[in-house]
Specification:
The structure is a homodimer.
Chain A: H1 3-23, H2 30-40, H3 47-57, H4 67-84, E1 94-95, E2 98-99, H5 101-127, H6 136-150, H7 155-165, E3 169-170, E4 175-176, H8 181-210, H9 215-241, H10 245-248, H11 253-256, H12 262-266, H13 268-288, H14 293-308
Helix pairs in contact in A: 1-2, 1-3, 1-4, 2-5, 3-4, 3-8, 3-14, 4-5, 4-8, 6-8, 7-8, 8-9, 9-13, 9-14, 13-14
Chain lengths: 311, 311
């Protein structure tokens, strides 16, 4: 199971399709279009599209059918990074090794580029052509899943809670006061679930829905996606604790801003144990789903790659 | 034709439904939910929902069918106001007679409230229940229209161009240098079309699409909506030129920020003549649509109300 090759192939599909997504928005204000393209082309592993493709393939379909839907999820992810990096949020200057959108296009330009990427994720998702085997009713459902997981019940609340989290830290030494540790862990679980896992789960669930999977299979894959998302964030915390900003292609902002992470709260070893437990739960959920065993094995391997591999 | 009563009835429907839209997003971060509710409850005439309802009724339907769709358009409108008011954009402190969202919830809070309102406009639109006569295929089309008109080909580009427009003014005396007047008028037409008319047109077009209207009727109503939107912005320019910030419930920001408007470029009289020409074109387009004459007459009266009445 050559997962790096699968990831690379899937990322290449997305990278090839992205300029077309921006071109499809012809008539856009030129500078706005440039800011959108700048952030879309910044790269990244394109993990969400890969998971969506792999989930779709579990039900015997070919990933090429749902390329616009995979682009849509990546557009939503890109918007969230642009807005998270804003001076009024995390005030980040570097992302994926490049200057952040607002550093290049100004604060207003970055707010608008994010707004447009979010909105046009739905344009690309809803207005693109799909083969007839992708049914309109399933497309409607998939769009509803994307909106619900990215909105106030999901990703946006994760970011709102993340901003709150700074108050939990004793700024003097970067440690959480002991009596507030339970509260801090609860807050952190909320942040990881919504800020990261919700959109990853949406990508996996959308893949299953677009393949016409039944409700039970869809639920199992959504739960799998949620846990993979939580694992992914756990791995990010652990890497960030190592302070290796270069490897992540960003400033080591968690440490600098003294943010709550599992690594700072529980230590790297315990964070690793919790990550492994989440991975077991993810795979147990995947087991509950039907579909093709070989394609499910690929999803398992993808999950391991995302959690364990040096990113 | 009691248009003020129709407007009031339609606004009351929306105002009654809005808290439910926010409640439907249970699990949202509490402060985020409050910021969303704060801006949604700030009032306004709810012109877009009224136009959507009236367009839907042209085809013999009852407005109550599409309440979630009307709320969705108003949520998109509300998000756009929150982001336009941000310090990095228009830096407005007052909106509809109240402190703007970022004055109450901070800059990050306002960015996130806008993001969530935009995203969850699609949640409410796509995940709400509708009577069976509202077909899923039409709902899919309506959601695509909303996304396309609100995105980079539409409203967001209008705001991006609006930010550019300040460069056209000689800051010394607030007048456009004569040789750049043609260019300024072209820019202004672009701003009005995208910043204002696109979403109003989307509201009207969505009403027709959700009623299952044919392509020709939908096109006629979309063109009508676009022109009404242009008229509406023209009227706003003229009112703003009168400098009556209190009446608009906001700071007289166009004058203060020396923004491009038809009133400042052409004078109030010529702006009024152009508005009247647009209104004639709007009504000619409405004439091309089929549907119930009485309901079309209501749409005509609504258009006049929106353009002519003291807002």
């Amino acid at each position: 199971m050559d997962i790096p090759a699968y990831m690379a192939h899937s990322a290449a599909r997305i990278n090839a399709a992205m300029p077309g997504c921006v071109r499809a928005l012809k008539g856009a204000h030129p500078r706005l279009g440039k800011a959108m393209a700048y952030s879309l082309s910044a790269g990244g592993k394109r993990i969400r599209p890969a998971l969506m493709f792999a989930a779709y393939e579990v039900f015997g379909r070919k990933a090429g059918d749902i390329l616009p839907a995979a682009c849509a999820v990546e557009m939503v992810h890109t918007y969230s990074l642009i807005h998270d990096d804003l001076p009024c949020m995390d005030d980040a200057g570097l992302r994926r090794g490049r200057a952040t959108c607002h550093k290049v296009y100004g604060e207003a330009g970055a707010v608008l580029a994010g707004d447009a990427l979010l909105t046009d994720a739905f344009t690309i998702l809803l207005c693109s052509g799909y083969p007839a085997r992708v049914r309109n009713n399933d497309l409607l459902k998939a769009a509803g899943i994307l909106a619900a997981r990215a909105g106030a019940r999901g990703m946006v609340s994760g970011q709102a809670a993340d901003l709150d989290a700074e108050g939990f830290l004793d700024r003097q030494n970067g440690r959480v006061i002991a009596r507030r540790k339970v509260e801090a862990l609860r807050l952190l679980a909320y942040i990881h679930l919504h800020k990261t896992a919700d959109l990853i789960s949406a990508a996996v669930e959308m893949g299953a829905v677009l393949a016409g999977a039944g409700a039970r299979d869809v639920a199992a894959l959504a739960a799998f996606g949620r846990d993979i998302g939580l694992c992914f964030q756990m791995a990010d915390d652990i890497l960030d604790a190592a302070g290796d900003g270069k490897k992540l292609g960003k400033n080591s902002s968690d440490a600098r801003n003294r943010k709550l992470t599992y690594a700072t709260l529980l230590g790297v070893a315990e964070a690793g144990r919790r990550g492994a437990a989440l991975m077991r739960r993810a795979l147990a959920n995947l087991e509950k789903a039907g579909g093709r065993p070989a394609a499910k094995a690929r999803l398992t391997a993808l999950a391991g790659y995302i959690y364990g591999t040096d990113r």
